[in-house]
């Protein structure tokens, strides 16, 4: 496995590549078309391509594919036998009325993955019926039991991050990460205090949907000669409407110009911009096949110039 650029998960001792892999699509038939548009063998090849490129940080969740994502990731790991860094998540579903359900959910995730611990365990989203304090207490217990190396949250606001951080500090456990939607087309973390809180608290910012489900790869440009059909629920998403895609065209055109200068793709430039944005940011694009995995990996190993970074930043402002 190649050595690549690395970043640390907050104040923990866990070092990961500057680019991770999101596995939402693995085993998900309803949204991503698993079993129709791609199959288990495609995922196996994507997994191998990631490791060949030095990308060994995989993010999954118990609700991805109703547990299939965890099962597939665990199977890939056993088949390949290379060490990887695994992050998964607890879903605070309405039926879970007590934070004690977290420990049972964690055991179920470990069983699906067929491992005795995970490197990062995250709360998938905040939920008013389960207090932040009680969830952090349960996460601390999971760490004490040796089933979790580090703990994180997802979709937490800056205020919620501070509460979680303070509660974990009672156990001398750092808040390792907050996983939040962040891309050139979705820059709210820059203005709502979340990115600033990550800097202040030394928390890793794991950026999900960094390519906006394919929009920032350029393949859905409205006037493209080979624009693929928008499949699944995405075709009903406002961001994929022709009007929105027309509005983002100045940004896509700028990314295309910069990409040509570096012999890179539009998506690789979009990912590189996020990585360069802040040392705490770790994008986790998805990869349904080996080609996508290799394409993602090429976002590392080179740098945008300050002028290029500023041009892209300015072009993205027009989409707001």
Number of domain units: 1
**Major β-sheet strand ordering:** 3-4-5-6-7-8-9-10
Q: What is the CATH third-level topology name? A: TIM Barrel
Question: What general form does the structure show?
Answer: globular
Supply the helix-strand structural class.
Answer: alpha/beta
Walkthrough of the structure:
The protein has helices at residues 40-52, 68-80, 101-113, 132-144, 158-169, 188-191, 194-201, 242-247, 249-262, 266-277, 290-297, 306-317, and strands at residues 6-8, 15-17, 21-22, 57-59, 85-90, 118-123, 148-154, 175-181, 204-208, 281-283. The chain contains twelve helices and ten strands. The longest helix has 14 residues, at 249-262. The protein has one domain (6-218, 267-303): Alpha-Beta Barrel (TIM Barrel). α1 (40-52) crosses α2 and α5 runs parallel beside α7 (194-201). The protein is an alpha/beta fold and 320 residues long. The N and C termini lie far apart (40 Å). Helix content is 40%, strand content 14%. β3 (21-22), α1 (40-52) and β4 (57-59) form a beta-alpha-beta unit. The mean pLDDT is 95. The protein is globular and about 55 Å long. The strands form two sheets. An eight-stranded parallel β-sheet has the order 3-4-5-6-7-8-9-10. Strands 1-2 form a two-stranded antiparallel ribbon.
